[in-house]
Specification:
With 380 residues, the protein is an all-alpha fold. It is built from 19 helices and no strands. The chain has two domains: 232 residues, Up-down Bundle (Rhopdopsin 7-helix transmembrane proteins); 128 residues, Homeodomain-like (Arc Repressor Mutant, subunit A, Orthogonal Bundle).
Length: 380
């Protein structure tokens, strides 16, 4: 095999992926499963990236081993899905049911038993036969099925991320959107890479070798960018996979349960008053990590009941409900002449925010002014 720039780039990308896999398997973190699942995905990714080398060096020695490695591409997107699930939910565990995701890989191998594996075992496998198989209709269908699988899992993953974002907003006063944002960026980058790969594989069966080579160059550049970005991101934020607990439910789902009352009764009015009195008197919102679970514990209420009252009855996300008290408190501080020397940054941390951008956005949304403009208008 000729060692051109393209092949060298593939080797570099594979090498970076292997180094990153070693890092993921050895780093000590609070939750190791997301690291293991990401390592599994990157291993399969590296095998797919270096597939042409396996085709050239391994297939002549063992066509069966070469095909088994090539078909491992059917495990890539399931591994990606399990990585996302383990990153979102702190209590996610691999179970016997998780083996269901291996089904496509197992089925495609079973389908190749008569026309590929048995041919080799009988000693009838020749170079001419291998070339004929690689360009056959079944192999083209195998490529198509890979991308059908990608589309199905992409829908599942994006649905999980959307669900995750809603849970964060409904249950946390300062939701860890960094984890959600990183996962979304990661998945979108993967999907772009798969799209470029799809174009390349379509061109594989065309007569234009030049166009195919250009597409291959785009793929290898994309792979290098992808692997390097993931490595840098993970090194800078090794504890990013915080996650939430899987028993959290969205209000829409709670409302479908038989015992969920949606009417504004006298009892619910009293509970709402109790919640608001507690917020004003005890000021729990000053805690930047305040969550629905913690507030429910302070009020001796069920998390489900509190969530329904805030997210449904008051028609506010927990994030917005808590932040209106924080902004009210910030407004008091900023309009007090005695606090003229207190900076806006100090104020935002004091009232429970942990992000300047979030504080400025929320403040302007509720008051119509930035914190600085508000302070100037009050202290004139």
């Amino acid at each position: 095999m000729e060692m051109n720039i393209l092949n060298i780039a593939y080797i570099v990308a594979g090498f970076i992926a292997v180094i990153f896999i070693m890092f993921l398997l050895t780093i000590k973190t609070e939750r190791s499963l997301p690291n293991y699942m990401l390592a599994a995905y990157l291993l399969l990714f590296a095998l797919d990236t270096l597939n042409q080398f396996f085709t050239y060096y391994l297939y002549p020695i063992s066509p069966i081993a070469g095909m088994l490695i090539s078909l491992s591409v059917y495990m890539m997107v399931p591994a990606l899905y399990l990585f996302v699930k383990s990153s979102i939910f702190r209590d996610f565990r691999l179970t016997p049911e998780s083996l269901f995701h291996l089904l496509p890989y197992i089925l495609i191998n079973i389908l190749l038993i008569p026309g590929y594996f048995l041919v080799h075992l009988r000693g009838n496998f020749t170079q001419e036969y291998a070339s004929e198989v690689s360009g056959s209709l079944p192999m083209m269908l195998a490529y198509i099925l890979v991308y059908v699988q990608i589309v199905i899992y992409a829908v599942l993953i994006l649905s999980e991320l959307r669900h995750y974002k809603q849970l964060l907003i409904e249950n946390y006063s300062n939701p860890n959107m960094g984890n959600h944002q990183w996962l979304l960026q990661f998945i979108l980058l993967v999907l772009v890479l798969y799209f470029i790969g799809l174009v390349k594989n379509v061109l594989r069966f065309s007569s234009s070798e030049i166009i195919f080579n250009y597409a291959s160059i785009m793929v290898v550049i994309g792979i290098l960018i992808f692997v390097s970005w993931v490595l840098i991101k993970s090194l800078k934020h090794p504890g990013m996979f915080t996650g939430i607990y899987s028993d959290m439910q969205l209000v829409q789902r709670m409302l479908k349960e038989p015992d969920s009352s949606t009417k504004l009764s006298g009892e619910s009015l009293q509970l709402i008053k109790k919640i608001k009195d507690h917020m004003e008197e005890e000021e729990p919102y000053l805690d930047s990590s305040l969550s629905m679970h913690e507030l429910a514990g302070q009020l001796n209420m069920k998390v489900k009941d509190l969530s329904l009252l805030i997210n449904h009855t008051l028609n506010q996300h927990f994030f917005d409900f808590v932040n209106q008290y924080r902004i009210n408190k910030a407004s008091e501080i900023l309009s007090d002449p005695e606090n003229k020397q207190v900076t806006v940054l100090e104020v935002l941390y004091e009232v429970g925010f942990n992000s300047k951008s979030s504080f400025n956005t929320t403040f302007k949304k509720l008051t119509g002014q930035t914190p600085t403009q508000f302070r100037k208008s009050k202290l004139v």
